[in-house]
Write a sequence for this structure.
């Protein structure tokens, strides 16, 4: 494991930072990430979206983001999960978010983990790259989700960004999940 860094910054101070350039997740940036954290399993999917979901991803695309990092943060037999204010009661999921322009994947993942769970983490393994073609009527958009296993370093779950996350907790991997 790598040494614990100071709290992640939202933006690096230079265009070149930790091997990443100021562009988003370019093929060169992803290759460096894979060389460091392993080659992910790659899946390609297509998903038809309703108006609400399409509006959310379209808004992200207008802001220049067509990706997310989804974070798997295990601690023993537990997994860090979050609840959003807009979720129905009892619905939890793993934390996720976007890597900012100029931010390395590692720093973006650590920042998102901290903002959503209050946990100090570090990247462990690059598990999955999901390349999804979202379809809405005659429109389509390509979206990539990067699933990363994060090494737990310290802390207890609590949302730091309380506008985006209403609760965070450890979930027992044996507990019943909706749809089981």
């Amino acid at each position: 494991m790598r040494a614990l860094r100071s709290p992640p910054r939202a933006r690096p101070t230079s265009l070149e930072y930790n091997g990443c350039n100021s562009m988003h997740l370019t093929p060169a940036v992803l290759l460096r990430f894979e060389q460091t954290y392993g080659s992910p399993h790659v899946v390609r999917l297509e998903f038809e979206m309703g108006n609400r979901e399409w509006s959310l991803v379209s808004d992200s695309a207008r802001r220049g983001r067509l990706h997310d990092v989804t974070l798997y943060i295990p601690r023993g037999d537990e997994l860090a999960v979050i609840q959003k204010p807009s979720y129905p009661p009892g619905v939890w999921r793993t934390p996720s978010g976007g890597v900012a322009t100029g931010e390395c994947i590692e720093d973006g993942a650590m920042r998102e983990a901290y903002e959503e769970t209050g946990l100090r983490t570090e990247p462990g393994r690059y598990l999955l790259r999901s390349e999804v073609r979202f379809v809405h009527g005659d429109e389509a958009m390509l979206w990539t989700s990067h699933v990363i296993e994060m090494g737990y370093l310290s802390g207890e779950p609590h949302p730091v960004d309380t506008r985006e996350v209403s609760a965070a907790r450890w979930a027992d991997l044996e507990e019943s999940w909706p749809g089981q």
About this structure: The radius of gyration is 16 Å. The helical segments are 27-37, 51-62, 105-117. The mean pLDDT is 85. The domain at 27-172 is CATH 3.90.79.10 (Nucleoside Triphosphate Pyrophosphohydrolase).
